[in-house]
Amino acid sequence: MSQELAAVGIDAFDEQVYRALLARQAAAPAELAGELGTGPERVARALDRMHDRGLVGRLSGPRRRYAAIDPQHAVEALIQERTVELGRVRSAAGELAGLFEAARRGDAKEVEIVSGREALGRWFVRLQQEAKRQVRTLDRPPYALTTANPVEETAMRGGLTYRAVYAPEALEWPGVLDDIRRLVAHGEQARVLPGLRIKLAIADDALALMPLSLDLTDVRAAVIRPSSLLDALTDYWRLCWTLATPLLAPPGATGAGTTGSGATGSGATGSGATGPAEESAGPGEEDRLLLALLVSGLKDEAIARQLGWSVRTMRRRMSRLHDQLGAANRFQAGAIAARRGWI
User: Fold this and answer.
1) What is this structure's pTM?
2) Is 50 exceeded by the pLDDT of residue 254?
């Protein structure tokens, strides 16, 4: 299988699809799939990726068809794009070399100010890569680059612990709740705290990154190394974690209480502290999430949107939980659910 385009970020299968399309000039995914001996959906995904890279165009009309773009121009654009990226890598390497030299001389600053979205993104990745035991975060909008953190799943597989406190506003952003559910399934411990006013990431007790403003027109952040300021921020994170409500239980942790530090429960059910067995059994995952979102302070419309329900369905489910809990209002429902270990 040819891989001449690997140097510009096109994988072997996508290049194979591209060559097949060049031979036809225009085709539907199913037509190319028969020729390549694979499924049409896999070919369609490859064509969509190449469309995003400017190698193919989508033809108008009811049928899903694509046309190849002249490689002389399309590939040249990819080469120029990769050249720019390599220039950024070279620039970043110079910046890192300067940091290394400063550390070797022993004059690295306790607080360093970095500017720009790309610099903030690079430092967030670096902070996670330098962590040896745990990463702790306070998370709220707006987001300078993306709501997702592609480093986290890999880091957790490598043994890092992630504990995150989210502002309710974060849960209203499209896709954020789904991201959190996926991360919790991989081991993240997630809580939610209304009134969260800052964003913060701490690696072990050695490095912190804190944006200085929530204004995306002036992106600046403080990189904080061991100092009394880092100690104070770590203490503030612990306070937020203690006050926050567990958002989602990790896999297998059902009916666990919410008191104490660390993870959100042990997964034990039916203990004497939680009352009758039918109470500790608790609701299903969706109703637990509904309760957690209500406690976090989200409005009905935002909760329904995140759960993929209508507002009417959400309120009907909440009314049923009120009856199940014997609660007269949402505050009581949250308090009783927390006492029973449902959230």
Assistant:
1) 0.54
2) no
